[in-house]
Write a structure and sequence with these properties.
By secondary structure, the chain is α/β, with parallel strands linked by helices. The chain has one domain: Vaccinia Virus protein VP39 (Rossmann fold), CATH 3.40.50.150. The protein is globular, with a radius of gyration of 14 Å. The two termini are 20 Å apart.
């Protein structure tokens, strides 16, 4: 699938803030979104050992559900997503945090991030929505942007099962 198709699908799913929340995790309220965000953030923190100096990257950040919970625990948090509408919602939800940054993806490239610039990266329930070729290209990009010894945490499942 090309990047424009992904973008169209996720922009449609995030056409308004409520639809965006529901598309991300089925939540119908900010409280529900924060609850699941805390749970997922704890998984990421435990898996990666996040600390105050870390530069974190979330591939497929959606509305910032997890980033909202992780950003206070790291030096810099970078969220990237293919959907303009998701990023718009995330920027509103995380506006109170001064160490966050967002980038809109236009293809399977993290060209806005330099080689070895990220300490730890994660992606939650994103790869199950993309073609195998795109999954491979994103994993290759994550490897490129991670510093030597950097860590990545990926949570995914098979939607066909």
């Amino acid at each position: 699938m090309d990047a424009n198709s992904y973008k169209e699908i996720w922009d449609f799913k995030a056409s308004d803030p409520c639809a965006a929340m529901t598309a991300v995790d089925g939540s119908f309220s900010e409280e529900g979104l924060q609850h699941t965000g805390r749970w997922s953030a704890n998984q990421v923190k435990n898996a990666l050992g996040v600390d105050r100096q870390d530069r974190l990257l979330e591939l497929g950040c959606g509305v910032g559900r997890i980033g909202r919970e992780l950003a206070p625990h790291c030096g810099r948090w970078l969220g990237v997503d293919i959907s303009d509408n998701m990023i718009d919602n995330a920027e509103r939800r995380l506006a109170h945090l001064d160490n966050v940054q967002f980038h809109r993806l236009s293809r399977t490239s993290l060209d806005m991030v330099g080689d070895g610039e990220i300490d730890k990266a994660y992606s939650i329930a994103v790869f199950c929505h993309m073609d195998k070729e795109d999954l491979y290209l994103y994993l290759r990009e994550l490897r490129r942007v991670l510093r030597e010894g950097g860590l990545i945490f990926v949570e995914t499942w098979n939607l066909a099962s």
